[in-house]
Amino acid sequence: MISIALIGGTGTGKSTVAAYLKEHYGAVWLDCDAIGHELLNEPIIQTQLIDRFGTEILNDPAATDKTVNRQKLGAIVFSDSQALTDLNALLHPPIMSRLRQEQIHAEKTGVPICVLDGALLMDVNIRQMVDEVWAITADKELRMERLMKGRQIPRARAEQIMQNQISAEAYATYADRVINTDHGEQGYAKTIEQILSLDKWKNKRKYEHK
Prior knowledge:
Layout: E1 2-7, H1 14-25, E2 28-31, H2 32-39, H3 43-53, H4 70-77, H5 81-108, E3 113-117, E4 132-137, H6 140-151, H7 155-163, H8 168-174, E5 177-180, H9 185-196
Parallel strand pairs: 1-3, 1-4, 2-3, 4-5
Helix pairs in contact: 2-5, 3-5, 6-7
């Protein structure tokens, strides 16, 4: 099985590339954001978050289920770098544990490619779990447009989110390869095909390109 980590900032197109690999190469897509959202429903995580950020992050502070409101939590952490660091410290360990479990399961079931998708992966030294790291990049203005449209937020909020993220240069420096998504599928499909056709994968190549 080939394991690939996709890293990059918000709006670069990580999910788009992951979905492409799933559709055209039969990859299993492990989405860190989705796993993180699931973890917010676990009581032990909810308790830890309330201890750090207070009950104002809850949908209803008076309710017994303590459901975390992601928008309220996001408003705090994306305007405060220390709050974001604290959130990452709480969520990264269980996210990585879940990723490893699902990666092992994917290999046991004969999956040809396992794609790990998440901006956090560079922070946790993901190289020990994958064959290659790909940095997904896009023009800053295009990223801004994708972010505003995808989250239905104003430009000022999108700018605030992007300001607290790691630079594109840092992602590119860490990665083995850089894939740009400015021109959509027609731009990155050929690049991916060329990468996965390299001789280095010949003993792991079990997929059929569709």
